[in-house]
Design a protein that fits this description.
Elements: E1 2-9, E2 12-22, E3 33-41, H1 45-52, E4 69-70, E5 73-83, E6 93-99, E7 103-109, E8 115-118, E9 132-135, H2 144-169, E10 177-180, H3 186-196, E11 202-207, H4 212-217, E12 223-226, E13 240-242, H5 301-315
């Protein structure tokens, strides 16, 4: 049996092609393995990030491809068409991380009523979330248009939830204003949606001029400001800035991040604490701020696991 894979050149994503790969017959599957037909998936700018960071974050290793090529990972759905695991039936629907391909063989491990993971050795290089599959057969939250929304938004909303949870656990570092850059992005407005429901927190969206109308229409930002007008934001009280802005992308490059009036906050390289308020700098930003999920910026691994579980409940 053959599968069709869509692959790209790792050093030039515009170079792409479809190839056929050999799959084991159902009878030849090893013990506990599943043969899954990929039915549909989402493809967004987030997937391009997976490709751009494929070497650094080992995404290319998750779904092997011929030398110098890679298979861009996507979030979507698959149907089990053959199973050698006694507790996983043919016909089940799985939601999770798939290749851009027609089929995938999964080595089912840690099978529960709600999910399983792919125990293949080559997939253990990435964070566990990328190897987990939800068993969603018959779940209305994962069918029809609602299922499409899950594939489009769920992966990034999980990060939104983690950031919201982290900020709340730390009482927003004394700030009552949260500023989100790239306010039109899915991660940002997912976070804005959560923050907007919290009492006493003002949510400010930073975006480029062409996106102002869209960002305002979302209804989850108390104020929307363009990057070139960022210095108009009053600096009379602490503000937390979340997100990232790159050098040269906007009239003013934001090099400093005003997290709060407390100078003990940890900042990534390329940023410095500026007390309160936001100050523009012409010097290029060398690194983007990003939320780290290795347990050091989000507390202990146990706290992180708890946040993920709560986030899953929020999404459902």
């Amino acid at each position: 049996m053959n599968a069709t894979d869509f692959i790209v050149a790792r050093n030039d994503l515009q170079q792409c092609k479809s190839i056929e790969t050999q799959l084991p017959d159902a009878a030849a599957l090893p013990a506990d393995a599943l043969l899954v037909k990929v039915t549909h998936f989402a493809f967004t700018a987030n997937n391009i990030t997976y490709a751009v960071m494929g070497d650094a974050l080992k995404y290319w290793q998750l779904f092997p491809a011929p030398k110098d090529f890679g298979n861009i990972p996507v979030w979507g759905f698959g149907e089990v068409i053959a199973s050698k695991h006694p507790n996983v039936a043919v016909g089940e629907t799985l939601f999770g991380y798939f290749p851009m391909a027609t089929h995938l063989v999964i080595e089912a491990a840690d099978v529960t009523k709600r999910g399983l993971r792919d125990g293949a050795a080559h997939r253990q290089v990435a964070a566990p979330v990328y190897n987990a599959y939800a068993r969603v057969s018959g779940d209305p939250a994962f069918t029809g248009k609602q299922g499409d929304y899950q594939a489009l938004l769920r992966p990034l909303f999980m990060l939104s939830f983690l950031v919201d949870d982290f900020l709340a656990e730390n009482d927003f570092y004394g700030a009552r204003r949260v500023m989100l850059s790239s306010a039109s992005s899915k991660t940002a407005y997912g976070l804005a949606h959560l923050l907007h429901r919290r009492d006493g927190i003002k949510v400010i969206g930073l975006t480029s001029a062409p996106n102002v109308a869209f960002v305002k229409s979302l209804g989850c930002y108390d104020e929307v400001v363009t990057y070139d007008a960022v210095t108009s934001i009053p600096a009379d009280s602490p503000v937390t800035l979340n997100g990232r802005v790159g050098p040269g992308a906007y009239p003013v490059d934001l090099e400093i991040t005003a997290i709060s009036s407390r100078p003990s906050c940890s900042l990534p390289n390329g940023y410095r604490l500026a007390g309160t308020g936001i100050t523009p700098h012409r010097r290029p930003v060398t690194r983007n701020a990003h939320a780290r999920q290795d347990g050091r910026h989000f507390g202990s691994r146990r706290q992180l696991a708890g946040a993920v579980r709560r986030g899953a409940g929020e999404i459902r």
